[in-house]
Amino acid sequence: MICEYDALPGIGHACGHNVIAAAGLGAGLAAASMAAELGGRVRILGTPAEEGGGGKVFMLREGAFEGLDAAMMIHPADHNLPTLTTLAVHCLKVHYTGVASHAAAAPHLGRNALDAAVLGYMNVAALRQHIRSDERVHGVFLNAGEAPNIVPMAASAHWFVRAATTQQLEELKARVVDCLAAGALAAGCVMDIEWLDPAYSEMSDNDRLLSRYQENAELLGRPFADPEVVGYVMGSTDMGNVSQVLPTIHPLIAVAPEGVSIHTPEFAAFACSDAGDGAVIDGATALAATVIDCWLDPL
Q1: Taking burial as the number of CB atoms within 10 A of a residue's CB, which of 43, 112, 168, 229 is the most buried?
Q2: Straight-line distance from the first to the last Cα atom of the chain, in angstroms, rounded to the nearest whole number
Q3: pTM score over 0.90
Q4: What is the pLDDT of residues 7-35, one digit of tens each?
Q5: Which neighbouring-strand residues pair with 104?
Q6: 218: three-class secondary structure by DSSP
Q7: Where are the domains of the chain?
Q8: Whether the predicted pLDDT of 110 surpasses 80
Q9: CATH homologous superfamily of domain 2-86+203-296?
């Protein structure tokens, strides 16, 4: 049973990880009370750093998921959905090094690292016209010089590259690097790419496990929306890496009205409201019932 718990800087539990942790813990304890009778076993895992840092990926590498038959969690949203679209993602920092010089007295002696970063950004902006509809590339500048009369010697940017599958991601990463490198070439600067470990994989939900969860949640009075109609995309999650190695589910549970997006102050308020408490109880109950279903009728 997965218990995410990290909050977001500045806006608290705007991704509802407080609900995830409480529901996962409740489900684990409820199922554990039946484990001996049904011949099962429950492992409750607190998983840090989902919002950046890939805690589950490192836990996978260290064996935290070994010996398990399935991994489950719920995630707060503005709909009840059995599944959602997530994208594989790899983050990078690009560092440009140029040559400092006086911008008025000797501009010809300088090599502008900010120009390299800006040109790289513009190249990626042009690339976006020619990538698939399920691919995303977005970035921000981290530093770009200190004074206008000094040709910037250093500049850097932070980029996210996302795609529907890990294979697509690798192909897109190569194109993004070419765009960034072209900026360095045009400005006469040196580029250094720093890929940030770990990459997140796309989600691969287990259909049988999902159907059991949905049946249990519907018995609690939670109607489910059609994922194809809602078209819900939730960025990326390190739960995707878990789903590549064992049966996994990551259904959404409604805590906010339709249209209230995660990662906003409004969503944080709902996650910490009575609606959030209700999602904890329903989520824990549905997850625990799903575990028991699996013990009675293994996948």
Answers
A1: 112
A2: 16
A3: yes
A4: 999 999 999 999 999 999 999 999 999 99
A5: none
A6: helix
A7: 2-86+203-296, 88-200
A8: yes
A9: Zn peptidases (3.40.630.10)
